[in-house]
Amino acid sequence: MADTHPAVRDPTAALEQLGADEAGRALLAAAQRDPGLWLVGGAVRDAMLGRRGRELDVAVEGDPLPTARALARDLGGRVTEHPTFGTASISDPDGRVRVDLARTRRERYARPGALPDVEPAPLVVDLGRRDFTINAIAVALDPARRGEARSVAHALDDLLEGRLRVLHDASFVDDPTRLLRLARYGARLGFDPEEHTRLLAGRAIAGGALDTVTGPRLGAELRLALAEPRATAALAELARLGVLAALHPRLRYDEELCERALALLPADGRRDLLLLAAIALPLSLSAGEPAAELRAWLDRLGFEAGDRERVLAAAQATPGLVDALARAGRPSELRAAAASVPLEGVALAGALGPAGGARRWLDDLRHVRLEIDGHDLLAAGIAEGPDIGRRLSAALDLRLDGALPPGREAELEAALGA
Fold first, then answer.
1. How much is the pLDDT for 3?
2. What's the domain range around 201?
3. Is the Cα dihedral 398, 401, 406, 407 positive or negative?
4. What is the pLDDT of residue 5?
5. What domain count does the chain have?
6. Which whole-number Å values give the CA distances from 198 to 195, 247, 352, in the listed order?
7. Which residue among 57, 105, 277, 297 is the one 20 to 30 A from 48 at the CA level?
8. Is 252 domain-assigned?
9. Tell me, what's the pLDDT at 85?
10. Domain CATH for 72
């Protein structure tokens, strides 16, 4: 059920937010020099909903590169230019994108799912090539027109009524990544797809639209969905729409499982990777080479190696870990079962079986440390090599099980005697 927003503000509310942000103030100053700048998309939408926007998207009636370079100098950031598409991004020294600028343009798709061919066009045409009506509202920034608002048909009503509506019937065929954005925006904003939009989404999925898009583009959209504050709501909508099944027929979303696992996951775990391991768990159980199907799928979607290996380790360890955690009686046995498994895998196993062992490991036992280390054993005459680790591990087991009195001397004696 969509939320209604009776307190939707005027589009000029976006200008107030600009004044409270360093990048926004720099953008307003740039508009003094460079006419034809329009704030558009998420920043306007969120300001009208009384939310703090995540990004600053600027449509430029003209060449955006001079404005982008000047903004980068003003903000002490770095500009990344894409002349083919007439776009530029300004990032801070940490690589976080702060402002995106794009020339107002017309898009044509040579084939379904392809990146578009673009050519300059007026703002009214640019607004019509966007994904959803609520993202097709623009506010002028240059002093001569500052505060003037433009939007496509239905945009303001859809924002008020909590609806997601595409701008034309071929939208999901031209760019099927919008199917994932439909779920992501719905989860973030509490909006529902308008009836015809949901019908078009179903037709596009049934027609194989997602098969026309490269894996890395799909992976980028899936990662954004998993990073949402309400990522479980985004996954639920992806499942309802049929997007998960189109991404891989064996993906499964189990809301109760995911919520139980997230409740166990500590703050230093990765919520996005836990959810990914949860929905992809059936792929890790394939016959043949362990987790080969899951590895191939993650590779196709362009996941970074570190994230891929963490998801693989979590998903692959989960089935056996459920039984091991249930059998573990002593803390040392919990450590033996869980210490080599990513936090996400332990939380997932705890959600699938008795949660007590997983919770005890994640919340408490994994933080127990010895006061001694390998240097102490070397100084005591133990030769360098694997035996150092074995002795420390044995002493840690005794510490966990409460079989050692406190202090370094007792730990060292236990390690030397192991």
1. 55
2. 166-247
3. positive
4. 55
5. 4
6. 5, 18, 33
7. 105
8. no
9. 83
10. 3.30.460.10
